[in-house]
Amino acid sequence: MKKIKLLSIMCFMTLLASCGNTTSDNTSNGGSNISPWWTTTGELSFDSDNKVVFNDVDIELATVVTGDDLPRFKNIVERFNSEHMGKIHVNVNAYNQNSFEQTIGQKISQNDTPPDLIMSHQKAHRNFADSKLIQPFDEAFEKGKIDFDISNFANNVASYSNLGYEGYQFQIPIDAQSQVLFYNKELLTQINGGILPNTRNDLINLLETAKTRMNDATFYGISGSTTDRDYFNKYTFLTAYIQNGGELYNTSTYKAEWTNENNTKAFNDAISSINELIDKEYFKYNEGLSTALTRFCRGKSLFLLAEPWLAETIFKNYAELNSGYTIDRAKEEIGGFSVAKMFALDDSNANSEKIFGDSHAFLMASTVKDINVKAACAYFCKWYTEDVQAGVDWANAGHISASKIISNANEYQEDAFIKEYITNFYLDIDKFVTIGNNPYYSDIINALFDIATNVTNKNTISSLIASKQQDYNDMIDLRG
Fold first, then answer.
1. Which letter, b or e, does each residue of 19-32 get, where b requires 16 or more Cβ atoms within 10 Å of its Cβ?
2. What is the mean pLDDT of each run of 10 residues along the chain (480 residues)?
3. What is this structure's pTM?
Protein backbone atom coordinates (compact mmCIF):
# COMPACT_ATOMS: atom_id res chain seq x y z
CA MET A 1 0.00 0.00 0.00
CA LYS A 2 1.30 3.46 -0.83
CA LYS A 3 2.24 5.70 2.08
CA ILE A 4 0.07 8.54 0.83
CA LYS A 5 -3.00 6.31 0.92
CA LEU A 6 -2.26 5.16 4.46
CA LEU A 7 -1.75 8.72 5.62
CA SER A 8 -5.10 9.67 4.15
CA ILE A 9 -6.80 6.83 6.00
CA MET A 10 -5.11 7.82 9.26
CA CYS A 11 -6.00 11.50 9.04
CA PHE A 12 -9.15 11.43 11.10
CA MET A 13 -7.82 9.02 13.72
CA THR A 14 -4.89 11.28 14.55
CA LEU A 15 -7.30 14.15 15.05
CA LEU A 16 -8.59 13.01 18.43
CA ALA A 17 -5.30 11.41 19.36
CA SER A 18 -3.70 14.84 19.12
CA CYS A 19 -6.06 16.02 21.86
CA GLY A 20 -4.56 13.66 24.42
CA ASN A 21 -2.55 10.47 24.74
CA THR A 22 -4.06 7.04 25.18
CA THR A 23 -3.47 5.64 28.66
CA SER A 24 -0.34 3.53 28.76
CA ASP A 25 -1.90 0.84 30.96
CA ASN A 26 -5.04 0.44 28.89
CA THR A 27 -5.10 -2.50 26.50
CA SER A 28 -6.72 -2.42 23.07
CA ASN A 29 -9.85 -3.81 24.68
CA GLY A 30 -9.81 -1.47 27.64
CA GLY A 31 -9.38 -2.64 31.19
CA SER A 32 -10.11 -1.71 34.77
CA ASN A 33 -6.47 -1.05 35.71
CA ILE A 34 -6.21 2.52 34.56
CA SER A 35 -4.52 5.45 36.25
CA PRO A 36 -7.07 8.26 36.62
CA TRP A 37 -6.29 11.25 34.43
CA TRP A 38 -9.03 13.29 36.14
CA THR A 39 -8.89 15.06 39.49
CA THR A 40 -11.51 16.14 42.00
CA THR A 41 -11.75 19.15 44.29
CA GLY A 42 -14.32 20.48 46.75
CA GLU A 43 -16.84 18.91 49.09
CA LEU A 44 -20.54 18.13 48.86
CA SER A 45 -23.22 19.21 51.31
CA PHE A 46 -26.27 17.12 52.15
CA ASP A 47 -29.67 17.92 53.61
CA SER A 48 -31.50 16.10 56.41
CA ASP A 49 -32.72 13.49 53.89
CA ASN A 50 -29.11 12.76 52.91
CA LYS A 51 -29.61 14.31 49.48
CA VAL A 52 -26.91 16.47 47.97
CA VAL A 53 -27.52 20.22 48.17
CA PHE A 54 -26.85 22.11 44.94
CA ASN A 55 -26.42 25.86 45.10
CA ASP A 56 -26.40 27.74 41.77
CA VAL A 57 -24.35 25.15 39.90
CA ASP A 58 -23.95 25.99 36.19
CA ILE A 59 -23.43 23.21 33.66
CA GLU A 60 -22.23 23.92 30.13
CA LEU A 61 -23.62 21.24 27.81
CA ALA A 62 -22.35 20.74 24.27
CA THR A 63 -24.69 18.84 21.96
CA VAL A 64 -24.39 17.46 18.46
CA VAL A 65 -28.14 17.97 17.97
CA THR A 66 -28.68 20.81 15.50
CA GLY A 67 -31.70 19.81 13.39
CA ASP A 68 -35.45 19.93 13.85
CA ASP A 69 -35.02 18.13 17.18
CA LEU A 70 -32.86 20.87 18.75
CA PRO A 71 -35.79 23.07 19.89
CA ARG A 72 -37.39 20.08 21.62
CA PHE A 73 -34.13 19.22 23.34
CA LYS A 74 -33.75 22.79 24.56
CA ASN A 75 -37.34 22.79 25.83
CA ILE A 76 -36.66 19.65 27.88
CA VAL A 77 -33.56 21.23 29.38
CA GLU A 78 -35.44 24.45 30.12
CA ARG A 79 -38.06 22.48 32.04
CA PHE A 80 -35.26 20.95 34.10
CA ASN A 81 -33.84 24.44 34.74
CA SER A 82 -37.25 25.72 35.81
CA GLU A 83 -37.75 22.82 38.21
CA HIS A 84 -34.27 23.28 39.69
CA MET A 85 -34.07 27.06 39.75
CA GLY A 86 -31.39 28.29 42.14
CA LYS A 87 -29.88 24.80 42.30
CA ILE A 88 -28.69 23.66 38.85
CA HIS A 89 -28.82 25.47 35.53
CA VAL A 90 -27.86 23.76 32.24
CA ASN A 91 -26.75 25.92 29.31
CA VAL A 92 -27.08 24.24 25.90
CA ASN A 93 -24.62 24.94 23.08
CA ALA A 94 -25.10 23.14 19.75
CA TYR A 95 -22.23 22.32 17.37
CA ASN A 96 -22.30 20.98 13.82
CA GLN A 97 -21.85 17.21 13.77
CA ASN A 98 -19.33 17.36 10.91
CA SER A 99 -16.79 19.06 13.17
CA PHE A 100 -18.17 18.17 16.60
CA GLU A 101 -15.44 15.77 17.76
CA GLN A 102 -12.64 18.09 16.61
CA THR A 103 -14.20 21.22 18.09
CA ILE A 104 -15.08 19.71 21.46
CA GLY A 105 -11.82 17.77 21.62
CA GLN A 106 -9.82 20.95 21.18
CA LYS A 107 -11.89 22.86 23.73
CA ILE A 108 -11.24 20.20 26.35
CA SER A 109 -7.59 19.46 25.54
CA GLN A 110 -6.74 23.18 25.48
CA ASN A 111 -9.05 23.99 28.40
CA ASP A 112 -10.55 26.71 26.22
CA THR A 113 -14.16 27.21 27.34
CA PRO A 114 -14.69 23.43 27.52
CA PRO A 115 -18.15 21.97 28.12
CA ASP A 116 -18.90 20.13 31.33
CA LEU A 117 -21.34 17.71 29.73
CA ILE A 118 -21.34 16.32 26.20
CA MET A 119 -24.35 14.89 24.38
CA SER A 120 -23.22 13.29 21.15
CA HIS A 121 -23.20 10.13 19.07
CA GLN A 122 -22.01 7.00 20.82
CA LYS A 123 -19.80 5.89 17.95
CA ALA A 124 -17.10 8.51 18.73
CA HIS A 125 -17.04 8.10 22.49
CA ARG A 126 -14.36 5.42 22.75
CA ASN A 127 -11.92 7.89 21.22
CA PHE A 128 -12.92 10.55 23.72
CA ALA A 129 -11.99 8.14 26.52
CA ASP A 130 -8.76 6.94 24.91
CA SER A 131 -7.72 10.57 24.41
CA LYS A 132 -8.44 11.36 28.09
CA LEU A 133 -11.00 13.97 27.13
CA ILE A 134 -13.69 12.58 29.42
CA GLN A 135 -14.01 11.01 32.86
CA PRO A 136 -16.32 8.35 34.29
CA PHE A 137 -19.46 9.21 36.26
CA ASP A 138 -18.79 6.65 39.02
CA GLU A 139 -17.30 9.06 41.55
CA ALA A 140 -20.09 11.58 41.02
CA PHE A 141 -22.78 8.96 41.53
CA GLU A 142 -21.05 7.51 44.59
CA LYS A 143 -20.14 10.73 46.39
CA GLY A 144 -23.43 12.35 45.42
CA LYS A 145 -25.35 9.32 46.72
CA ILE A 146 -27.18 9.18 43.40
CA ASP A 147 -28.57 5.76 42.50
CA PHE A 148 -27.76 4.66 38.97
CA ASP A 149 -28.12 1.22 37.37
CA ILE A 150 -27.01 0.61 33.77
CA SER A 151 -29.24 -2.47 33.63
CA ASN A 152 -32.16 -0.04 33.36
CA PHE A 153 -31.17 0.64 29.75
CA ALA A 154 -31.54 -1.24 26.46
CA ASN A 155 -29.09 -4.12 26.37
CA ASN A 156 -26.90 -3.28 23.38
CA VAL A 157 -26.44 0.43 24.04
CA ALA A 158 -25.92 -0.32 27.75
CA SER A 159 -23.17 -2.81 26.94
CA TYR A 160 -21.10 -0.03 25.35
CA SER A 161 -21.31 2.31 28.35
CA ASN A 162 -17.88 1.48 29.79
CA LEU A 163 -16.29 2.42 26.43
CA GLY A 164 -14.00 -0.57 26.74
CA TYR A 165 -12.83 0.28 30.27
CA GLU A 166 -14.23 -2.53 32.39
CA GLY A 167 -15.77 -1.42 35.65
CA TYR A 168 -16.27 2.23 34.69
CA GLN A 169 -19.41 4.15 33.75
CA PHE A 170 -18.14 6.54 31.09
CA GLN A 171 -21.35 7.25 29.22
CA ILE A 172 -25.06 7.43 29.96
CA PRO A 173 -27.22 6.14 27.06
CA ILE A 174 -30.10 8.34 25.93
CA ASP A 175 -31.77 6.98 22.81
CA ALA A 176 -31.49 5.20 19.49
CA GLN A 177 -32.24 6.29 15.93
CA SER A 178 -32.18 4.86 12.42
CA GLN A 179 -34.16 5.07 9.21
CA VAL A 180 -37.79 4.00 9.44
CA LEU A 181 -40.84 3.61 7.20
CA PHE A 182 -43.92 5.83 7.02
CA TYR A 183 -46.89 4.46 5.09
CA ASN A 184 -50.13 5.66 3.53
CA LYS A 185 -52.96 3.96 5.43
CA GLU A 186 -55.68 4.69 2.87
CA LEU A 187 -53.52 3.43 0.01
CA LEU A 188 -52.64 0.27 1.92
CA THR A 189 -56.32 -0.39 2.51
CA GLN A 190 -57.04 0.00 -1.20
CA ILE A 191 -54.23 -2.35 -2.16
CA ASN A 192 -54.64 -5.25 0.28
CA GLY A 193 -57.16 -4.33 2.94
CA GLY A 194 -54.62 -2.59 5.19
CA ILE A 195 -52.42 -5.59 6.04
CA LEU A 196 -48.78 -4.72 6.77
CA PRO A 197 -46.02 -7.24 5.95
CA ASN A 198 -44.45 -9.41 8.64
CA THR A 199 -41.54 -10.76 6.58
CA ARG A 200 -39.42 -9.90 3.59
CA ASN A 201 -41.54 -12.17 1.38
CA ASP A 202 -44.67 -10.41 2.60
CA LEU A 203 -43.11 -7.08 1.65
CA ILE A 204 -42.22 -8.24 -1.87
CA ASN A 205 -45.71 -9.62 -2.42
CA LEU A 206 -47.27 -6.38 -1.17
CA LEU A 207 -45.09 -4.24 -3.43
CA GLU A 208 -45.88 -6.40 -6.46
CA THR A 209 -49.59 -6.19 -5.72
CA ALA A 210 -49.32 -2.42 -5.30
CA LYS A 211 -47.47 -2.06 -8.60
CA THR A 212 -50.05 -4.15 -10.44
CA ARG A 213 -53.11 -2.47 -8.97
CA MET A 214 -51.80 1.09 -9.29
CA ASN A 215 -50.78 0.45 -12.93
CA ASP A 216 -48.93 3.75 -12.98
CA ALA A 217 -45.39 4.20 -14.29
CA THR A 218 -44.83 7.06 -11.82
CA PHE A 219 -45.78 4.89 -8.81
CA TYR A 220 -43.11 3.29 -6.60
CA GLY A 221 -43.94 1.14 -3.61
CA ILE A 222 -41.12 2.75 -1.61
CA SER A 223 -39.62 6.22 -1.95
CA GLY A 224 -36.63 7.56 -0.09
CA SER A 225 -33.55 9.73 -0.40
CA THR A 226 -30.31 8.10 -1.53
CA THR A 227 -28.51 11.11 -2.99
CA ASP A 228 -28.67 14.24 -0.83
CA ARG A 229 -28.57 12.51 2.57
CA ASP A 230 -26.23 9.87 4.01
CA TYR A 231 -28.70 7.88 6.09
CA PHE A 232 -29.53 5.20 3.53
CA ASN A 233 -25.85 4.34 3.12
CA LYS A 234 -24.99 4.67 6.82
CA TYR A 235 -28.07 3.07 8.35
CA THR A 236 -30.29 1.13 5.95
CA PHE A 237 -27.55 -0.65 4.01
CA LEU A 238 -25.90 -1.83 7.24
CA THR A 239 -29.31 -2.85 8.59
CA ALA A 240 -29.69 -5.08 5.54
CA TYR A 241 -26.20 -6.48 6.12
CA ILE A 242 -26.69 -7.40 9.79
CA GLN A 243 -30.22 -8.71 9.19
CA ASN A 244 -28.63 -11.25 6.87
CA GLY A 245 -26.14 -12.33 9.53
CA GLY A 246 -23.21 -10.04 8.80
CA GLU A 247 -20.70 -8.97 11.46
CA LEU A 248 -19.34 -5.44 11.39
CA TYR A 249 -15.90 -6.37 12.73
CA ASN A 250 -14.06 -8.76 15.03
CA THR A 251 -14.67 -7.27 18.48
CA SER A 252 -11.37 -8.67 19.79
CA THR A 253 -9.11 -7.21 17.11
CA TYR A 254 -11.41 -4.53 15.61
CA LYS A 255 -10.41 -5.88 12.20
CA ALA A 256 -12.86 -6.44 9.39
CA GLU A 257 -13.49 -10.01 8.27
CA TRP A 258 -15.89 -9.15 5.49
CA THR A 259 -14.48 -11.69 3.03
CA ASN A 260 -15.01 -14.75 5.20
CA GLU A 261 -17.75 -17.14 4.13
CA ASN A 262 -20.46 -15.92 6.50
CA ASN A 263 -19.92 -12.20 5.92
CA THR A 264 -19.53 -12.59 2.17
CA LYS A 265 -22.91 -14.30 2.08
CA ALA A 266 -24.40 -11.56 4.27
CA PHE A 267 -23.09 -8.85 1.94
CA ASN A 268 -24.39 -10.67 -1.12
CA ASP A 269 -27.79 -11.22 0.48
CA ALA A 270 -28.02 -7.58 1.60
CA ILE A 271 -27.06 -6.33 -1.85
CA SER A 272 -29.50 -8.73 -3.51
CA SER A 273 -32.22 -7.63 -1.13
CA ILE A 274 -31.77 -3.97 -2.02
CA ASN A 275 -31.25 -4.53 -5.73
CA GLU A 276 -34.40 -6.61 -5.99
CA LEU A 277 -36.36 -3.56 -4.83
CA ILE A 278 -34.57 -1.38 -7.38
CA ASP A 279 -34.64 -3.80 -10.33
CA LYS A 280 -38.35 -4.53 -9.97
CA GLU A 281 -39.03 -0.80 -9.67
CA TYR A 282 -40.44 -1.13 -6.19
CA PHE A 283 -37.92 1.41 -4.88
CA LYS A 284 -36.84 4.57 -6.66
CA TYR A 285 -33.06 4.81 -6.30
CA ASN A 286 -30.87 7.88 -6.98
CA GLU A 287 -33.20 10.66 -5.97
CA GLY A 288 -33.32 13.29 -3.23
CA LEU A 289 -35.56 13.75 -0.24
CA SER A 290 -37.71 16.48 -1.74
CA THR A 291 -38.70 14.36 -4.73
CA ALA A 292 -39.28 11.25 -2.62
CA LEU A 293 -41.32 13.19 -0.06
CA THR A 294 -43.48 14.83 -2.73
CA ARG A 295 -44.20 11.47 -4.40
CA PHE A 296 -45.24 9.94 -1.10
CA CYS A 297 -47.43 12.89 -0.12
CA ARG A 298 -49.18 12.81 -3.52
CA GLY A 299 -50.07 9.14 -3.09
CA LYS A 300 -47.53 7.91 -5.62
CA SER A 301 -45.73 5.74 -3.03
CA LEU A 302 -47.02 3.38 -0.40
CA PHE A 303 -43.97 3.74 1.88
CA LEU A 304 -41.49 6.52 2.60
CA LEU A 305 -38.06 5.55 3.93
CA ALA A 306 -36.93 8.45 6.11
CA GLU A 307 -35.57 9.53 9.48
CA PRO A 308 -38.09 9.58 12.36
CA TRP A 309 -37.31 13.19 13.30
CA LEU A 310 -38.70 14.25 9.91
CA ALA A 311 -42.22 13.27 11.01
CA GLU A 312 -43.49 16.84 11.45
CA THR A 313 -42.05 17.81 8.05
CA ILE A 314 -43.80 14.83 6.46
CA PHE A 315 -47.14 15.66 8.10
CA LYS A 316 -46.86 19.30 7.04
CA ASN A 317 -46.03 18.45 3.43
CA TYR A 318 -48.79 15.87 3.26
CA ALA A 319 -51.33 18.44 4.42
CA GLU A 320 -50.06 21.11 2.02
CA LEU A 321 -50.09 18.80 -1.02
CA ASN A 322 -53.58 17.43 -0.38
CA SER A 323 -56.34 20.00 -0.71
CA GLY A 324 -58.42 20.53 2.42
CA TYR A 325 -56.10 18.52 4.65
CA THR A 326 -54.87 19.59 8.08
CA ILE A 327 -51.80 18.31 9.86
CA ASP A 328 -54.05 16.37 12.23
CA ARG A 329 -55.73 14.65 9.29
CA ALA A 330 -52.32 13.89 7.79
CA LYS A 331 -51.34 12.19 11.04
CA GLU A 332 -54.48 10.06 10.87
CA GLU A 333 -53.64 8.86 7.36
CA ILE A 334 -49.90 8.25 7.84
CA GLY A 335 -48.70 5.28 9.88
CA GLY A 336 -45.34 4.16 11.21
CA PHE A 337 -43.61 0.91 10.25
CA SER A 338 -40.25 -0.74 10.93
CA VAL A 339 -37.45 -1.89 8.64
CA ALA A 340 -36.96 -4.87 10.97
CA LYS A 341 -37.12 -8.13 8.95
CA MET A 342 -37.66 -6.23 5.70
CA PHE A 343 -34.19 -7.00 4.27
CA ALA A 344 -33.59 -10.49 5.68
CA LEU A 345 -33.82 -13.05 2.86
CA ASP A 346 -34.27 -15.71 5.53
CA ASP A 347 -36.82 -14.47 8.07
CA SER A 348 -35.88 -17.31 10.42
CA ASN A 349 -32.44 -15.73 10.80
CA ALA A 350 -31.96 -14.73 14.45
CA ASN A 351 -30.63 -11.37 13.24
CA SER A 352 -33.63 -10.51 11.08
CA GLU A 353 -35.16 -8.06 13.57
CA LYS A 354 -31.94 -6.13 14.13
CA ILE A 355 -31.69 -2.50 13.09
CA PHE A 356 -28.43 -0.62 12.69
CA GLY A 357 -28.18 3.03 13.63
CA ASP A 358 -26.71 5.40 16.17
CA SER A 359 -27.35 6.43 19.75
CA HIS A 360 -26.95 9.67 21.69
CA ALA A 361 -25.29 9.46 25.08
CA PHE A 362 -23.98 11.78 27.79
CA LEU A 363 -20.29 12.17 28.64
CA MET A 364 -18.55 14.28 31.30
CA ALA A 365 -15.46 16.24 30.29
CA SER A 366 -12.17 15.52 32.07
CA THR A 367 -11.79 19.25 32.75
CA VAL A 368 -14.57 19.14 35.35
CA LYS A 369 -12.88 19.11 38.76
CA ASP A 370 -15.36 20.48 41.34
CA ILE A 371 -17.31 17.59 42.85
CA ASN A 372 -20.37 19.84 43.02
CA VAL A 373 -20.35 20.22 39.23
CA LYS A 374 -19.63 16.52 38.76
CA ALA A 375 -22.53 15.55 40.97
CA ALA A 376 -24.80 18.06 39.22
CA CYS A 377 -23.86 16.55 35.85
CA ALA A 378 -24.64 13.05 37.13
CA TYR A 379 -27.91 14.26 38.64
CA PHE A 380 -29.01 15.88 35.36
CA CYS A 381 -28.15 12.76 33.33
CA LYS A 382 -30.16 10.60 35.72
CA TRP A 383 -33.09 13.03 35.50
CA TYR A 384 -33.00 13.13 31.70
CA THR A 385 -32.99 9.35 31.42
CA GLU A 386 -35.60 8.69 34.13
CA ASP A 387 -38.04 11.61 33.84
CA VAL A 388 -40.93 10.15 31.84
CA GLN A 389 -42.08 13.46 30.39
CA ALA A 390 -38.55 14.15 29.17
CA GLY A 391 -38.59 10.75 27.47
CA VAL A 392 -41.99 11.44 25.91
CA ASP A 393 -40.89 14.83 24.61
CA TRP A 394 -37.65 13.45 23.19
CA ALA A 395 -39.48 10.54 21.55
CA ASN A 396 -41.80 13.06 19.92
CA ALA A 397 -38.66 14.56 18.41
CA GLY A 398 -38.03 11.18 16.76
CA HIS A 399 -35.77 9.39 19.27
CA ILE A 400 -36.82 6.20 21.03
CA SER A 401 -35.74 6.17 24.66
CA ALA A 402 -32.96 3.77 25.67
CA SER A 403 -34.18 3.96 29.27
CA LYS A 404 -36.40 1.09 30.36
CA ILE A 405 -37.63 3.20 33.27
CA ILE A 406 -39.08 5.62 30.73
CA SER A 407 -40.15 3.13 28.06
CA ASN A 408 -42.00 0.95 30.59
CA ALA A 409 -44.03 3.87 31.95
CA ASN A 410 -47.72 4.04 30.95
CA GLU A 411 -47.46 7.74 30.10
CA TYR A 412 -44.74 6.91 27.57
CA GLN A 413 -46.47 3.90 26.07
CA GLU A 414 -49.84 5.66 25.74
CA ASP A 415 -48.54 8.84 24.13
CA ALA A 416 -50.24 9.18 20.73
CA PHE A 417 -47.08 9.77 18.67
CA ILE A 418 -45.08 7.07 20.45
CA LYS A 419 -47.91 4.57 20.17
CA GLU A 420 -48.48 5.19 16.45
CA TYR A 421 -44.90 5.72 15.33
CA ILE A 422 -41.96 5.24 17.72
CA THR A 423 -43.11 1.85 19.05
CA ASN A 424 -43.80 0.67 15.50
CA PHE A 425 -40.47 1.96 14.18
CA TYR A 426 -38.41 -0.26 16.50
CA LEU A 427 -39.88 -3.66 17.33
CA ASP A 428 -37.30 -4.56 19.98
CA ILE A 429 -34.94 -1.88 21.28
CA ASP A 430 -32.71 -4.59 22.76
CA LYS A 431 -31.91 -5.65 19.19
CA PHE A 432 -30.75 -2.21 18.13
CA VAL A 433 -27.11 -2.25 16.96
CA THR A 434 -24.53 0.55 16.74
CA ILE A 435 -20.87 0.55 15.71
CA GLY A 436 -19.96 -0.11 19.36
CA ASN A 437 -16.69 0.68 21.12
CA ASN A 438 -14.45 0.64 18.07
CA PRO A 439 -11.54 3.12 18.34
CA TYR A 440 -11.33 3.08 14.54
CA TYR A 441 -15.03 3.88 14.14
CA SER A 442 -14.53 6.63 11.57
CA ASP A 443 -12.43 4.46 9.29
CA ILE A 444 -14.74 1.46 9.39
CA ILE A 445 -17.82 3.61 8.85
CA ASN A 446 -16.19 5.31 5.87
CA ALA A 447 -15.18 1.96 4.38
CA LEU A 448 -18.70 0.56 4.77
CA PHE A 449 -20.15 3.79 3.42
CA ASP A 450 -18.08 3.43 0.24
CA ILE A 451 -19.37 -0.12 -0.18
CA ALA A 452 -22.94 1.05 0.33
CA THR A 453 -22.65 3.75 -2.34
CA ASN A 454 -21.77 1.02 -4.85
CA VAL A 455 -24.65 -1.26 -3.96
CA THR A 456 -25.93 -1.27 -7.56
CA ASN A 457 -22.50 -2.11 -9.05
CA LYS A 458 -23.12 -5.84 -8.80
CA ASN A 459 -20.15 -6.94 -10.91
CA THR A 460 -17.50 -5.07 -8.93
CA ILE A 461 -18.87 -5.10 -5.39
CA SER A 462 -16.93 -8.20 -4.27
CA SER A 463 -13.57 -6.74 -5.23
CA LEU A 464 -14.52 -3.45 -3.59
CA ILE A 465 -15.38 -5.20 -0.32
CA ALA A 466 -12.02 -7.00 -0.35
CA SER A 467 -10.19 -3.75 -1.11
CA LYS A 468 -11.92 -1.80 1.64
CA GLN A 469 -11.27 -4.59 4.12
CA GLN A 470 -7.58 -4.56 3.21
CA ASP A 471 -7.29 -0.78 3.51
CA TYR A 472 -9.03 -0.72 6.88
CA ASN A 473 -7.05 -3.62 8.35
CA ASP A 474 -3.76 -2.20 7.03
CA MET A 475 -4.55 1.04 8.83
CA ILE A 476 -4.98 -0.87 12.11
CA ASP A 477 -1.68 -2.70 11.57
CA LEU A 478 0.11 0.54 10.79
CA ARG A 479 -1.14 2.12 14.02
CA GLY A 480 -0.06 -0.97 15.94
1. bbeebeebeeebee
2. 40 42 36 83 96 97 94 97 98 95 97 98 95 98 97 94 95 97 97 96 98 95 94 97 98 96 96 97 95 97 97 96 95 97 93 96 98 98 98 97 98 97 94 95 95 91 96 92
3. 0.91
